[in-house]
Amino acid sequence: MSLSVWYDLSLFLLLFALFVYVFATVAITDLRKVYLLFHFLMMLWPLCQFATGITHDRHLQLFYVTLSFVALSMLGSGWLLLTAFLTGNASKLGRKRLLLLSIPAVVAAVGVAMNPFNLFVKPLEGGYIHREYGPWFWVVIVILLSYFFASLSFLFRAFHSCRTILTIKKQVKITLWGIFVLATFALTDLLLNVVLREWLPIIPGLTSAGIFISALFFVFVIKRYNVLDIVSIAHEDVINTIPYGIMVVDENESIIEVNKALRLFVDVNVGDYFDMEKFLGSVRIAGSSRRFLEHYKHKNNILSQIEIIVEREPVSHFILQASPIVDSYRMQIGRILMFQDISQERYLVKELNRQNEILRERNHSLDSIRNELSMANQKLKEMALTDSLTNCYNRYYLTEQLTHEVKNNIQNRAPFSLILFDVDFFKAINDRYGHVIGDEVLYRTAQTVKQSLRSTDILIRYGGEEFIIYFPDTDRRLAEQLAEEVRLLVESTRILVGHENEPVSITLSMGALSVENFDIEHMPGNPEGYLMGLLAEADKALYQAKSNGRNRIEFAG
């Protein structure tokens, strides 16, 4: 028995191992099913070559040869379908197009299976180990080449398109290598072992080797770029179902991603340059765009937004929000621009104001109801979990959520620590620079503190310049270490404010408290009151820190 037979078996086993690997490590999606079918068809070729070589039954040999070429015929359409998915063109393939694309492959496979008048293959030397191919073989080759060039068309268009994002271009490049390797091996096999077989010795296993190497390329693309990852696929679906227009630009203002809803606000494509100043000049702004453009041009790492009015019928209002994308060094590498249509809200507000005016004129007694509604709306705003200035949690979170955390810690006998701190001499900053700069200092201070916290720690704006840090699962020794890290980081941070040449140096005074002796602590009947008592103790320690010279940590008890 020829060694080439075992060579084909080895390649089949390696392809089968890749098949099991993809099956076991990738979530179930339609794209995954397409790839697994494609991979299965590739596996049949070396398997059938092996089976043909080990049997002496002429009919079995014909069966295996036929099965291998049927799989090869169908592989062409699977090849084209897979490249369409890899390049993001799958959405353009409806049922009718899929049917049309599969017809040539089906016709080729039927001709191979029927082999009328030996038009596809006939035996030599009494068997099909050595065989002669007929006209239908060349029909199959032409169909496969057609699928090959169609796949190349998909890949080259995606690779050279300015609208294709960089990640897809990378996976397309690797896929192109895989296709060229398979095509090179298959065409070499065709040339040496079919066209020139009368003059050259047979070199077995070329197509099998090409299939295995190209499968390695495909599996690398799938695992490296999460092509079949359900999370990545769901991410794109979720982005496209969001009713807000979303645009992602890089640091050079080139558009790298958009969603479908963006078309309702602005007509741009991936790869275009987005000129924010030019765009704002083409629409009417509610208020002034100067501050927004200053933050945008100077790449300040803060979220900013502006209301835009588009003068068309009907007039539309929307909020443009610019959020920075920063790397691990807090350097801005791009932005997310979100366009939120608030036309309906503006209309409702206008209509509500009109109705309120009518109601005011008709019956002054409704003023009390309107005042109650205003107070209710104010309470709802105050109940928001996040402080709008610093993006920290607020006091509502403190009373509603942190109370449960403290109660659970005591119940589970888990140590925890609280730190109450404020910015030293913050009033002097407000008096010298104004409240706008004071707000900026509070925001920068909060962001600096967040950098030194663990993922489980919680930062809360308690009020004014006072903040609370909650350290779960933290005893006094660890709390001292963590608090000192926060203090040193803030002390070393310099904040540029206004037009001053010298940056502002900020320090913190901290009052800390640790709960770790559960022989004394017991389950509080009033958790909220208990938490307030803890904060009162921490506040005493904070007062002591200020009395002892500020920029220090004092522990209660």
Question: Can you put this structure into words, describing what you see?
Answer:
This protein is 57% helix and 15% strand. It is built from 17 helices and 15 strands. The chain has helices at residues 3-25, 30-54, 58-86, 95-114, 135-160, 166-195, 206-224, 230-241, 276-281, 290-297, 343-362, 366-382, 395-412, 426-433, 435-452, 476-492, 527-547; strands at residues 121-124, 130-133, 245-250, 255-258, 284-285, 304-310, 316-326, 332-341, 416-423, 458-463, 466-472, 494-495, 504-505, 508-515, 553-555.
Average pLDDT over all residues: 82
* Major β-sheet profile: 6 strands, antiparallel
For the record, give the distance between the C-alpha atoms at the N and C termini, rounded to a whole number.
87 Å
Spans of at least 5 consecutive residues with low confidence: none
Protein name: Diguanylate cyclase
Pfam family, one: GGDEF
Organism: Paenibacillus medicaginis
GO molecular function: diguanylate cyclase activity
Comma- or semicolon-separated keywords:
17 helices, alpha+beta, 15% strand
Provide a brief overview of the structure.
This protein is an alpha+beta fold and 557 residues long. The protein is 57% helix and 15% strand.
Helices and strands in order, then pairings?
Layout: H1 3-25, H2 30-54, H3 58-86, H4 95-114, E1 121-124, E2 130-133, H5 135-160, H6 166-195, H7 206-224, H8 230-241, E3 245-250, E4 255-258, H9 276-281, E5 284-285, H10 290-297, E6 304-310, E7 316-326, E8 332-341, H11 343-362, H12 366-382, H13 395-412, E9 416-423, H14 426-433, H15 435-452, E10 458-463, E11 466-472, H16 476-492, E12 494-495, E13 504-505, E14 508-515, H17 527-547, E15 553-555
Parallel strand pairs: 14-15
Antiparallel strand pairs: 1-2, 3-4, 3-8, 5-6, 6-7, 7-8, 9-11, 9-14, 10-11, 12-13
